[in-house]
């Protein structure tokens, strides 16, 4: 069993010790929010795992529970109103939900770091970026202000911010959107964590900058051999970066798959709908495809399969029986490794 | 920055002239005059009064009197009190330090206690302690300060006997505690509420989530990341508050018999001593202007997004 040594200043070399299990494993995680109107079940039994050096893309619409899952892993859920009634989040085999506040604080930032969507509001407006970057070293490694500043400049260089030394004392509002997101990435990277959770890191950026930021993130991940959870609603972003993908809908994973197979042969009508929604150059001039309807209200998730009101293939069974996440096989019965689908008609969807 | 300060200082000139003119005309418009007030109930020969007025320049038209006053002022002469024949400058030099001490005392009390209360409540918005704070501050805001002053006097001085109901002419620090608390209580309520709202709002900010995700200790998250942002609106209020406290001192000084500016203005008003009133009010205006300039500069230190050019 691997234990977390709070005194280690330098992250242990990766890859060697985690041969036994995954870097991070989420098991049957449930998250609910107690609101005035009732209990909103944001996450209903999510399972996924990430290994060192691996990238897991978590895909889903707003309200699908992808960010809430990430926040639960990070320990930054607002509790209350949030509550985790059930589930485990194992980091290197230890359940983080059972740890004390201080134990978790020592993991946050040092072992697991997070990149947020909107860098402008996620960076403190009244503190210089050098201060905010340096804080990681000062708090976690007890460095002096001067050392921390030198490290901050190094980090800013690492994420390719031009004239880092001159800009270290600037404030977030003085940077462009892409540069701010680089600063967020630098902050997450500061202590070379084992796992980075990127919550829609490119959503607030324009398309050319999106590509740059994604490339940077992918490069750095390779360099440090980190695990990466990439949360997004944009299938276009993840294709080149991710190793495997989990599609979420109404707080559940509806399909899991290695990345390229999912694009080739989706095994869930929702995934198919998402893929069909990507605008394609060869269909210029035609009406864009959209999945009809809206994501369900989490206070009143439909009975049976949560997707049934919007599903083109819905049958009676979909409205009554809840589909489990089952392994997906070839037509001859050979199992497709890593593939799972939560649809009564996955066979028809993938092979039909 | 330098240019900004220079511009702000230049802007004080029209404000200065405007406020002196305003107060001066108001004194002129008041019924009664200082010479008659001098005589009290006695019947005095109108010829004698007219002669005295002529000697003091009070028979001149308003604009001329004002001009004379300003000319004197620019030569460093605040004028002379008619009743006591003492220079107004002397009266100001005696009264001002006491009021400044009182106002500063109240200001420190307001700032320290108000912010502490606000943070305490704001961190747990809508919980019991937050509701309690809202109730207390509501009470402080709705009770006029003279009522609060008399109540405090009756309770602490007459019933408990902890303090003397009247402050001695020297106005030592310990004597000023009760007046300062009464004087600062209204501002205290505002500061506490402002801080409370600001803290509660900033707690939900994205950068607070980032700070937690960075694994910072709680004390640092609140002390550095939250407070720095939450203080911005509070500082703005505190800046204008210094002037308000000096003005509010008139009532408080009356209750506790503090021999400060408020008392001096009150006496001067009763005797229609125009030059004394104008002199003191002008100084208060200047204190107000300088304080708000300082706050605006401090604002830029707190919030780097603000730049003065």
From TrEMBL, chain A:
TM ranges are none
InterPro entries documented for this protein: AAA+_ATPase (IPR003593), ABC_Ni/Peptide_Import (IPR050388), ABC_transporter-like_ATP-bd (IPR003439), ABC_transporter-like_CS (IPR017871), Oligopep_ABC_C (IPR013563), P-loop_NTPase (IPR027417)
GO terms (molecular function) for this protein are: ATP binding
Topology versus the membrane: Peripheral membrane protein
What are the start and end residues of every segment in region (Disordered)?
1-21
Q: Which Pfam families match?
A: ABC_tran, oligo_HPY
State the family it belongs to.
Belongs to the ABC transporter superfamily.
Q: What is this protein called?
A: ABC transporter ATP-binding protein
Automatic annotation (TrEMBL), chain B:
Subcellular localization, as worded in the UniProt entry: Cell membrane
Q: By its UniProt entry, which CDD domains does this protein fall under?
A: TM_PBP2 (cd06261)
InterPro entries, per the entry: BPD_transp_1_N, MetI-like, MetI-like_sf
Q: What is its main location?
A: membrane
Q: What is the recorded membrane topology of this protein?
A: Multi-pass membrane protein
**Superkingdom of the source species:** Bacteria
> Which spans are transmembrane here?
12-30, 98-121, 133-156, 176-194, 277-302
Record-linked Gene3D superfamilies:
MetI-like (1.10.3720.10)
Q: Keywords on this record?
A: Cell membrane, Membrane, Transmembrane, Transmembrane helix, Transport
The ABC transmembrane type-1 domain is annotated at 96-299
Q: Does the keyword Repeat apply?
A: no
Keyword Nucleotidyltransferase found: no
Q: Which family does it belong to?
A: Belongs to the binding-protein-dependent transport system permease family.
Q: What is this protein called?
A: ABC transporter permease
């Amino acid at each position: 069993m691997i234990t977390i040594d709070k005194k280690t200043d330098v992250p242990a070399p990766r890859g060697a010790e985690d041969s036994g299990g995954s870097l991070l494993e989420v098991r049957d995680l449930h998250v609910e929010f107690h609101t005035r109107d009732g209990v909103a079940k944001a996450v209903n039994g999510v399972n996924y795992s990430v290994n060192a050096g691996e990238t897991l893309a978590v895909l889903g619409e707003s309200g699908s529970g992808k960010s809430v899952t990430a926040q639960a892993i990070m320990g930054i859920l607002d509790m209350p109103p949030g509550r985790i009634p059930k589930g485990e989040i194992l980091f290197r085999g230890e359940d983080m939900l059972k740890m004390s506040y201080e134990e978790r604080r020592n993991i946050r930032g040092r072992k697991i770091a997070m990149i947020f969507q909107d860098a402008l509001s996620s960076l403190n407006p009244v503190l210089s970026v050098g201060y905010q970057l340096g804080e990681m070293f000062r708090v976690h490694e007890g460095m002096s202000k001067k050392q921390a500043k030198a490290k901050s400049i190094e980090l800013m260089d690492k994420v390719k911010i031009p004239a880092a030394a001159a800009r270290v004392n600037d404030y977030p509002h003085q940077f462009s959107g892409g540069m701010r997101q680089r600063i967020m990435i630098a902050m997450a990277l500061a202590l070379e964590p084992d796992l980075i959770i990127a919550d829609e890191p490119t959503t607030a950026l324009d398309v050319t900058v999106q590509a740059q930021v994604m490339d940077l993130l992918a490069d750095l991940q390779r360099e440090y051999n980190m695990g990466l959870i990439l949360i997004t609603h944009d299938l276009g972003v993840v294709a080149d970066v991710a190793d495997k993908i989990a599609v979420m809908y109404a707080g559940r994973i509806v399909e899991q798959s290695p990345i390229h197979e999912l694009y080739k042969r989706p095994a869930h009508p929702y995934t198919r709908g998402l893929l069909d929604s990507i605008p394609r150059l060869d269909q210029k001039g035609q009406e864009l495809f959209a999945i009809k309807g809206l994501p369900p209200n989490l206070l009143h998730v439909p009975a049976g399969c949560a997707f049934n009101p919007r599903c083109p293939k819905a049958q009676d069974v979909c409205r009554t029986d809840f589909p489990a996440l089952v392994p997906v096989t070839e037509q001859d019965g050979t199992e497709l490794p890593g593939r799972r689908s939560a649809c009564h008609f996955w066979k028809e969807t993938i092979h039909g | 920055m330098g240019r900004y300060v220079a511009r702000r200082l230049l802007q004080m000139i029209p404000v200065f002239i405007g406020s002196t003119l305003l107060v001066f005309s108001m004194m002129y418009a008041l019924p009664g005059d200082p010479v008659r007030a001098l005589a009290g109930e006695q019947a005095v020969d109108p010829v004698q009064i007219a002669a005295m007025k002529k000697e003091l320049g009070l028979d001149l038209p308003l604009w001329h009197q004002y001009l004379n006053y300003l000319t004197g002022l620019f030569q460093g002469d605040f004028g002379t009190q008619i009743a006591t024949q003492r220079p107004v400058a002397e009266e100001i030099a005696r009264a001002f330090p006491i009021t400044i001490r009182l106002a500063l005392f109240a200001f420190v009390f307001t700032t320290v206690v108000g912010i502490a209360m606000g943070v305490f409540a704001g961190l747990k918005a809508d919980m019991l302690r937050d509701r309690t704070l809202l109730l207390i501050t509501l009470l402080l805001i709705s009770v006029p300060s003279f009522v609060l002053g008399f109540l405090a006097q009756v309770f602490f001085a007459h019933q408990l006997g902890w303090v003397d109901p009247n402050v001695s002419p020297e106005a030592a620090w310990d004597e000023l505690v009760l007046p300062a608390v009464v004087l600062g209580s209204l501002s205290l309520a505002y500061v506490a509420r402002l801080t409370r709202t600001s803290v509660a709002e900033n707690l939900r900010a994205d950068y607070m989530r980032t700070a937690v995700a960075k694994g910072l200790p709680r004390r640092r998250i609140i002390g550095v990341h939250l407070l720095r942002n939450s203080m911005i609106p509070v500082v703005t209020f505190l800046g204008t508050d210094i002037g308000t406290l000096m003005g509010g001192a008139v009532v408080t000084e009356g209750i506790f018999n503090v021999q400060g500016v408020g008392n001096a203005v009150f006496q001067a008003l009763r005797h229609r001593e125009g030059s004394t009133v104008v002199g003191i009010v002008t100084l208060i205006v200047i204190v107000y202007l300088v304080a708000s300039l300082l706050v605006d500069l401090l604002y830029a230190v707190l919030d780097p997004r603000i730049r003065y050019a």
